[in-house]
Every structure is written in C-alpha cells, then in structure tokens.
C-alpha cells in the first residue's frame, strides 16, 4: 500500500492495484470561511495543484459532507461519472451535485477487489457533537494488503476501541488536530487521544493526519510528536506525515 497525504484529511491511496482519494478538500488557501474566528480556511496551501491531487483516481471515498472533507473545488474538478462511496444519508446530496455513480455503504461492499466496511464515529460530545451530525470511518481490506482502519472525524471513545479490538487493523488513520469551537471539548482526536490509540494497539502503525490545516485545530505535529516521545512511542509506531509526503506500508 502507498498513501500520500495531500492536506488535512485528503489522501491519495494506492491499494490492491487501485488508486482512490479520500475526503477531497482542494480549496485554495484562505478561500473557505473561518471555523474559529482566527483565519480563513484552509490556513495552508496545497502541496500540489488540485488537478494533480485527483489525477488518475478511480474512486472517491467520502466520510461525510462537511466542507473540509468534500468541497466545491473537488465537486468542480472530479469527473461526474467517478464512483463515489459514502455514508448512508449523504448519497442524495452528492447526486444533487451532478455525480452519477454514488453508492452508500450501509455496512460493507466490495469495489475492485477491496472490501470496505463502514464504522461509526462520534464527532464531538454533547450539544456540539449532536450539531456536527453523523460521520463515518471505514475499514478496507484486500488479499495481500494490510487491513486499514480510517477512523475519520471522531474522538476516541468506546466504539472506536471496539472496532480496533474486533478488526485488529494493521494500520489506523486518525484525525488528530484536536479541533474545537471556543471552549468546547475536541470534536476529533487530540494528542492525548491519539496516544491512547497507539497504546491500545502497539502492534499497529498509526498515521495521524488532519493537522495544521484549519483554524480550529489545536494540536500541531510538533505537539503530537513531543507527547508521543514522552510516552515512549517511536516514530515507527506513530507516523505524522507532512503535506505532500508519501508513505509506503
């Protein structure tokens, strides 16, 4: 498997001989509204052109429809006949954008020899969590490839722990920016919660993304690396890629 972090949660994934993109957020720097009243989003540029980010992709996997996971630039640039896999409840809104090959994953399905299984997430707690709405993660598997659990926009909570215990993934992708609104609790994993994932699965490779790209994030790559070091978690166990970096697993 080969995986390139584009920016935020957007990844180009080569898996089982196929190329797909997850959560395409391709907007130019500063062209999306601020989430925390600090700066327009995204707060960093793409490491490549948006056209290069989607070049050759055969499918898009979309966890939910917040703007930083599926934006107007992606809608404009992606071919309208591109297969799109999404969580149930989002398919009609995606079709309204002109896409013609949209398939919701209620439980699991197989695309091009890859099994995708939807997993639930909790996008924050209390009233904020309710307002953020339904989100999903996905497990993908194929013969001869590592089992990947992309947790998506979720905090660390018992359901995520149960997915890990049940699936025993080889690779876990976390969204680890500790994003929050004002004094709210985090709406995705923060540094401490990411370390909890690493501690729960010492045999897996954890890849932390969704960092240093949006103005409501509270965790930097350096923050996360420092906390990991203090817990004795090596860089080989917790990978924190830079925008544009490609990982081979």
Helix-strand blueprint:
Blueprint: E1 2-7, E2 10-15, E3 18-22, H1 50-54, E4 59-62, H2 72-77, E5 84-86, H3 91-96, E6 102-104, E7 108-111, E8 114-120, H4 126-132, E9 136-141, E10 148-152, H5 158-167, E11 171-175, H6 191-200, E12 205-209, H7 221-230, E13 238-239, E14 246-248
Parallel strand pairs: 3-4, 4-5, 5-6, 10-11, 11-12, 12-13
Antiparallel strand pairs: 1-2, 1-14, 2-3, 7-8, 8-9, 9-10
Helix pairs in contact: 6-7
List its salient traits.
single chain, 249 residues, alpha/beta, Metallo-beta-lactamase, Chain A, seven-stranded mixed sheet, 7 helices, 26% strand, globular
Describe the structure.
- The structure is a single chain.
- The protein has a single domain, classed as Metallo-beta-lactamase, Chain A.
- The model has no long low-confidence stretch (mean pLDDT 97).
- With 249 residues, the chain is of the alpha/beta class.
- Helix 6 crosses helix 7.
- The radius of gyration is 17 Å and the shape is globular.
- Helices cover 22% and strands 26% of the residues.
- It contains 7 helices and 14 strands.
- The relative contact order is 0.16.
- The strands form 2 sheets. A 7-stranded mixed β-sheet has the order 6-5-4-3-2-1-14.
């Amino acid at each position: 498997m080969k995986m390139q972090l584009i920016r935020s949660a957007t990844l180009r994934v080569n898996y089982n001989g196929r190329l797909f993109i997850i959560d395409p957020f391709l907007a130019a720097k500063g062209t999306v509204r601020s989430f925390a009243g600090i700066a327009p989003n995204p707060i960093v540029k793409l490491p490549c052109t948006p056209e290069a980010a989607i070049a050759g992709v055969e499918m898009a996997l979309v966890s939910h429809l917040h703007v930083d996971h599926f934006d107007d630039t992606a809608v404009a640039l992606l071919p309208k006949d591109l297969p799109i896999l999404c969580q149930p409840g989002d398919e009609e809104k995606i079709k309204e954008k002109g896409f013609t090959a949209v398939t919701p994953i209620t439980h699991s399905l197989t695309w091009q020899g890859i099994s995708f299984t939807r997993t639930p997430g909790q996008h924050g707690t209390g009233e904020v969590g309710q307002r953020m709405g339904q989100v999903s993660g996905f497990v993908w598997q194929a013969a001869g490839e590592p089992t990947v659990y992309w947790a998506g926009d979720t905090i660390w909570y018992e359901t995520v722990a149960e997915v890990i215990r049940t699936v025993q993934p080889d690779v876990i992708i976390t969204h680890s920016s500790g994003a929050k609104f004002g004094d709210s609790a985090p709406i995705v994993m923060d540094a401490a919660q990411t370390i909890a994932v690493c501690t729960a699965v010492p045999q897996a490779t954890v890849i932390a993304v969704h960092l240093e790209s949006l103005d409501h994030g509270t965790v930097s790559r350096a923050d996360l690396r420092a906390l990991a070091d203090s817990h004795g978690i090596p860089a080989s166990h917790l990978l924190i890629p830079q925008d544009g970096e490609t990982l081979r697993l």
